Amino acid sequence: MVTSRREAYPVARTTMTVIGLVLLTGLGLLLVYVTRRVLVWMVIAAFFATALYPAVNWVERRAAWHRRWLATLLVFLAFLAVLAGIIAVFVVPLAHEAVRLADELPRVADDVQRGRGPVGSLVERYHIRRYIAEHRDQLQGYARGLGAPTLAFLRGAATTVAGVVTIIVLAYLMVLEAPKLVDNVLALFPDRRAARIRRVGADCARSVTGYITGNLLISVICGLATYAVLFLTGIPYAGLIAAFVAIADLIPLVGATLGAVVAVGAAFLHSITAGIVVLVFFIVYQQLENHLLQPIILSRTVALNPLTVLVAILIAVELAGILGALLAIPVAGMIQTVARDVWNERQGRCQPRPTVGTDETPVDEAEPPEAESGGDQPPPCPS
Questions:
Q1: What is the pLDDT of residue 350?
Q2: What is the pTM of this model?
Q3: Which of 21, 26, 35, 167 is the most buried if burial means most Cβ atoms within 10 Å?
């Protein structure tokens, strides 16, 4: 009888351990769900911090004062100045056009009533006035019900502003405290493994920087091509619309479509012919960007295979929407870097520095070439 009780103790402990682990996992998932908004802000802040980290290091090295807080402040002020300039280029003309539209609204309404102009002709052709007259009560009910969605929109706008401020502050603190944090974490590992982790981490950071560079290049190409087409077709405010398309194109895969909706709508309001030309342009350009420009440019800047770039974006969009699309390529680059380093270690051919791309080009081109040709043998792989 005593033996059976003793045998029951390990079973009871194992059962309690499993139950405890299940409860802890459930609590952890619940915590992630409750704080999902803050976690998203932290991920975005880490993304920007990784991108701005090399610039802060460069300013800190080149400046005479060697104060990291001052270098971080200068870089972030420059970043915010560029961001404010982009917003001003987009918002200021939009505000002017909104004022002009308000002044011309009575004339536009009169044209609609008389069936003149592009809007009036569309209203006359598709019998929109008769539809509005027949469904006036229903439309008025929809209008009265817009109060709650408007309040929700205002709350969402306030949350977005708070999120942007929080992301900027988090990114600033991450860049400022990154050296101390990295040194404290690496101090937990042996010297050789710590050096290896530092090199792989630097390569991962290059993936993020390369992604931002490549994505900006694609957006500039999209904006210039859109401006050329809009200018040649005589559509007004071509520069403003092209700027919006370029900014929307920063979102992989779906960004060009979002910008195209606005551009094509403006073109159809100008004339049917211009609308058809712009629509055909965006159909052709989006195919070229998704299947040619984006895979080729990002495969060079992030050192990923074009097929990997496309698959990573598709999977990430399905899993996390727009945020997943923004982070898919740098995350895929990091996974490739870590996976290659682990594979090299398992194969017993650990390299003195990480490599990128299908040809495994060393990330640090400044290292003397004799290190690769057998002058100095790399240290053995850390255990």
A1: 52
A2: 0.61
A3: 167
